[in-house]
Design brief:
The structure holds 2 protein chains of 2 kinds. Chain A is an alpha+beta fold. Helices cover about 25% and strands about 20% of the residues of chain A. Chain A is built from 18 helices and 26 strands. Chain A folds into 3 domains: about 180 residues, Alpha-Beta Complex (Dipeptide-binding Protein, domain 1), CATH 3.90.76; about 120 residues, Periplasmic binding protein-like II (D-Maltodextrin-Binding Protein, domain 2, 3-Layer(aba) Sandwich), CATH 3.40.190.10; about 220 residues, Roll (Dipeptide-binding Protein, domain 3), CATH 3.10.105.10. Chain B has 2 domains: about 240 residues, MetI-like (MetI-like fold, Orthogonal Bundle); about 55 residues, no CATH class. The longest helix of chain B is centred in the last third of the chain and has 38 residues. Classes of the chains: A alpha+beta, B mainly alpha. At the A-B interface, α8, α13 and β19 of A face α7 of B.
Chain lengths: ~600, ~350
């Protein structure tokens, strides 16, 4: 995705365009959003300490620069608020650091009005100058942040302050409005805090940078733990979408290097919650007295988060798979139901389309070809694969119907061996080629694979097609069109999709494109995990619905838990309940055991 | 042809008298022979089927589609189901004889909504249970043993052929030839062979033969040193000098005189080399750099077992099997060393 964005940017820097206007245009239509439903629980109580764990101590407390992209960035970056975030239910933009926004006439400029009360944690007001400084900062060679440097040069081309509280942002290309808010929603850096010189990286390694979000670091014990404290007078506390959220007063993040040991800490009551997405943890480990006596509750929450595009990517340039009948037959020979209901313990679901989790963009009418040996045989017979060799594998002109599957995740072997045994029944041999993950990806990028078993992580507001399906990227190495799919009709549609700025038309095109992908048979979608699962002590309280449509996790204390939707910080700690649970544990008393399953968003 | 001299015969007799080693050798040989015929003992194909008055022997040869036995599919017959069906039909003369363990090392015996691995059970004939994808642990052990032991024997043969030849030549000719190979071997031994295998395995999928090849390329050096020293030693003995004085050629001196007298060195090392072969293949499989899935292998079972300690039958089976084989090999090695110990039969003036 990033590569694509950069490529695009590089292309457009060659063309000339108008700069941002010197004066703020007078006829701007300022937009905000205060109509969408509330999603935090009014029952929430403020207070308490949330105890969490991380697997390793961060290498730095900087947000950008060398070594800053580790897992701890997930604690630092969400506390630097975005200009605009997205409503976790309606997926529409809602105000955050900016109270209003307006679109310029050329389709690639946005103006933001910074919230009048917005302040840094040291009390300094957030101003337009901070945003102008951000561009200088990110482009600076002292900061050593190549990706950001490119982004603030080639994707976002200009930022200008109009007084203290209004800024204008200009992007490289015109986009639909929702997309533009996401794509050109720049971050902000406190100008008064940073001194840009060659010592910047070293000097700021362990300095706590002022931020705009609800929590700020208050204590650092190197190698051991980091404590965040909620700001006593956080400026956004009473904003519509932030009321009753971010409830714990303190968050202690302790380093526990092994996941099994942190589970032991959780069982002792030293951690408040624990993620149980892995089937082994959920089915084998989440047992015992703490659960039976109701001290720990379990939550299984289905969501509509964006799913990785996971599946088999069939190389149309390989001789056997060039034949669409073979591709269809292969799809009918893969018994995913058996995989899901056995080794995956029924926990995963079948994925049906190339992209899923983009709301209205999803084409929900498509159903992947089911395991059906008769249909598989019919398709193969149509292409002359009828005769079986001595080992039961089909043979045509002395060639066996053996298809090589390249993959890089050893933990997927158990899924593939079942598919392999079942495919034998259809007379297709699947040859499993397990490589180291980097080498397998290299082989796929060089298009030397027959079938690639992998998943593309995706993000953003709407699906992407050009990099995967456009003929611009077919028949050449180092592109993401692993299918080498090359179809002029699809190309035209993708070009239109990329250029379209009307959302309704884009949705229509996305649906049509998913149908074309399905008809090509070149991508067989595999499985998805459309939920999050956690266990938490009884004193950890959640809203009645547990989470929102787009919640990636239930006990994330910060705003953005996955991607761009403002879905975190909804839970609270009930201190009275905590005392009751502690007393009950001492006396051996029990509460009713609780397992909450929420299938509201299950599809 | 190397003739057995009276000394060797004596040594073999002594070996037989060391009970622990001797019985280990017998059982290991038996296991080897059985594993060659593993298809008759552990297999999902029936040994014999009598269907409508006709006899079938499906074990070896081409697959028989389900339609052969009146089943409605054209893929390979599921003989367990066939046996079940025939059993349920009253009044037919048909019968099916299945092997003791009626599973292959590859098929996933999965039941809907019951999650693998399944524990050991005599009723389902999974005597050691199944692994995490429902494959029979015993079947994978047996076929894994066959692969490991044949890998090991092949490796041994290649390594010793090269090692003994070069080592012997170094000792026999000495001089520049010796010097050159000494340095070459020193350099070559310092290549970290495990890393080489890992690099190779990450680029191409290794198969049985490439693994043997790579292991031979980095494993032949071990024997050369021992052969070189003992050849040096034997070369200066009176019987060799006498043979040469009588005009024996180099080949005759080496093959008829020196080799038979250094055989004890070779024989002593064989069991340990076999053990090394098995363990290195297992280690590579365990680390994921060995034979590609779904090849049955002890290393793969071991890694599955250690990841799933909640299902102790997986790790227990493979640890016991591996322990037993290595123990037997060690006993054999110990007995051979004792039997062939030259100090018992020679003395120096």
């Amino acid at each position: 995705m990033r590569a694509l964005a950069l490529l695009l940017g590089a292309f457009f820097t060659l063309t000339a365009w108008a700069e941002l206007p010197a004066e703020l245009p007078a006829d701007l239509e300022w937009i905000t959003n205060s109509e969408d439903p509330l999603f935090a629980s009014p029952l929430a109580k403020r207070g308490g300490t949330l105890r969490m764990s991380v697997q390793s101590f961060p290498l730095t407390l900087r947000r950008v620069g060398p070594d800053s992209n580790g897992s701890f960035a997930g604690f630092l970056r969400p506390n630097q608020m975005s200009l605009v975030v997205y409503h976790p239910e309606t997926r529409r933009p809602i105000p955050s650091l900016a109270s209003h926004w307006a679109f310029g006439p050329n389709g690639r400029t946005i103006f933001y009005r910074i919230d009048a009360d917005a302040r840094w944690s040291d009390g300094v007001a957030v101003s337009g100058a901070d945003f102008e400084f951000t561009v200088e900062f990110m482009r600076s060679k002292h900061v050593v942040a190549p990706w950001y440097s490119n982004y603030y040069t080639d994707v976002v081309t200009d930022v200008k302050a109009y007084g203290h509280k209004v800024i204008g942002v200009e992007g490289a290309t015109a986009k639909p409005r929702d997309e533009m808010l996401f794509e050109y929603g720049i971050g902000v850096v406190p100008k008064h805090f940073h001194v840009l010189n060659e010592r910047w990286v070293r000097d700021t390694n362990w300095k706590v940078e002022p931020n705009t979000g609800p929590y700020q670091i208050s204590e650092v014990r190197k190698g051991k733990y980091i404590v965040f404290e909620r700001k006593k007078d956080w400026w956004a506390s009473e904003r519509r979408y932030y009321r009753h959220r971010f409830n714990p007063d303190r968050i202690r993040v302790k380093v526990i290097r092994d996941i099994n040991i942190s589970y032991q800490h959780f069982m002792k009551g030293d951690l408040d919650s624990f993620g149980l997405v892995l089937p082994r943890f959920w089915h084998e480990k989440a047992k015992g007295e703490n659960y039976e006596k109701g001290y720990i509750n379990r939550y299984w929450f289905y969501n509509e988060a964006v799913q990785p595009s996971a599946g088999l990517f069939l190389n149309e340039d390989s001789p056997k798979l060039a034949d669409r009948n073979v591709r269809y037959a292969l799809a009918h020979a893969l018994n995913f139901d058996k995989v899901i209901n056995t080794v995956l313990r029924g926990d995963y679901s079948r994925m049906h389309t190339f992209n899923e989790g983009f709301g209205e963009y999803d084409n929900t009418t498509i159903r992947q070809r089911p395991f059906d040996l008769d249909k598989s045989r019919d398709h193969l017979a149509a292409s002359g694969w009828v005769e079986r060799g001595p080992d039961g594998i089909l043979v045509k002109d002395g060639q066996r119907l053996s298809i090589r599957i390249t993959y890089g995740a050893p933990q997927h072997t158990e899924r593939l061996v079942i598919l392999r045994e079942e495919a034998k029944k259809a007379g297709i041999e699947l040859e499993l080629q397990l490589l180291d993950s980097a080498s397998s990806f290299k082989q796929m990028q060089e298009k030397k694979h027959e079938v690639a078993w992998m998943a593309w992580g995706s993000q953003g507001m709407s699906p992407r097609y050009w990099q995967f399906w456009h003929s611009d990227n077919a028949h050449k190495p180092q592109t993401n069109n692993l299918m080498n799919h090359d179809d002029p009709a699809m190309d035209a549609m993708i070009d239109e999709y990329r250029a379209a700025t009307d959302k309704a038309r884009r949705i229509e095109l996305a649906h049509a494109l998913e149908q074309m992908i399905f008809d090509s048979g070149s991508m067989i979608a595999s499985t998805k995990v459309p939920y999050t699962r956690s266990a938490a002590w009884r004193w950890m309280k959640l809203p009645d619905e547990l989470g929102t449509r787009t919640s990636g996790s239930l006990f994330n204390p910060f705003e953005l838990s996955s991607g761009i939707y403002s879905s975190g910080g909804l839970f609270w700690i009930d201190l009275d309940e905590k005392k009751r649970v502690r007393d009950a544990r001492d006396d051996g008393d029990a509460f009713p055991a609780l397992l909450v399953l929420n299938e509201q968003y299950k599809r | 042809m190397i003739k057995l001299n009276p000394l060797t015969i004596k040594q073999l007799k002594r070996f037989r008298s060391i009970k622990r080693g001797y019985y280990s050798a017998v059982s290991l040989t038996l296991l080897l022979v059985l594993s060659v015929a593993a298809e008759l003992l552990v297999n999902n194909r029936a040994l014999m089927v009598n269907f409508e008055g006709k006899l079938f022997f499906p074990t070896y040869g081409a697959f028989l589609p389900g339609t052969t036995f009146g089943l409605g599919y054209d893929y390979e017959t599921n003989y367990r189901e066939l046996a079940q069906r025939i059993h349920e039909q009253a009044g037919t003369d048909d019968w099916v004889v299945m092997p003791i363990v009626p599973y292959s090392a590859f098929e996933n015996d999965l039941r809907e909504y019951e999650y693998p691995p399944y524990p050991p059970s005599v009723e389902t004939r999974h005597f050691l249970g199944t692994d995490t994808t429902g494959r029979d642990v015993l079947a994978r052990l047996v076929y894994g043993f066959r692969i490991a032991i044949s890998f090991s024997l092949l490796l041994l043969a290649c390594n010793y052929l090269i090692g003994v030849t070069i080592g012997c030549a170094m000792g026999f000719w000495g001089g520049a030839f010796d010097l050159f190979f000494q340095r070459l071997i020193e350099i070559w031994s310092n290549v970290p062979f495990l890393y080489v295998i890992m690099i190779i395995a990450s680029i191409v999928v290794p198969n049985f033969w490439t693994l043997v090849l790579v292991m031979v390329i980095f494993g032949w050096m071990g024997m050369t040193w021992y052969m070189r020293t003992s050849t040096y030693k034997e070369k200066t003995r009176e019987y060799v000098l006498a043979a040469r004085a009588l005009g024996a050629s180099s080949a005759r001196t080496i093959f008829s005189h020196i080799l038979p007298n250094t055989i004890s060195v070779i024989v002593t090392f064989i069991p340990f080399s076999i053990a090394t072969g098995i363990t290195s293949l297992t280690a590579l499989d365990y680390l994921g750099f060995g034979l590609p899935p779904p090849t049955p292998s002890w290393g793969e079972l071991l890694s599955q077992g250690t990841e799933n300690l909640e299902y102790p039958w997986i790790v227990a089976s493979v640890v016991v099997a591996m322990g037993a084989v290595l123990l037997m090999v060690t006993y054999i090695g110990e007995a051979i060393r004792e039997a062939f110990d030259p100090k018992q039969f020679t003395y120096y003036e």
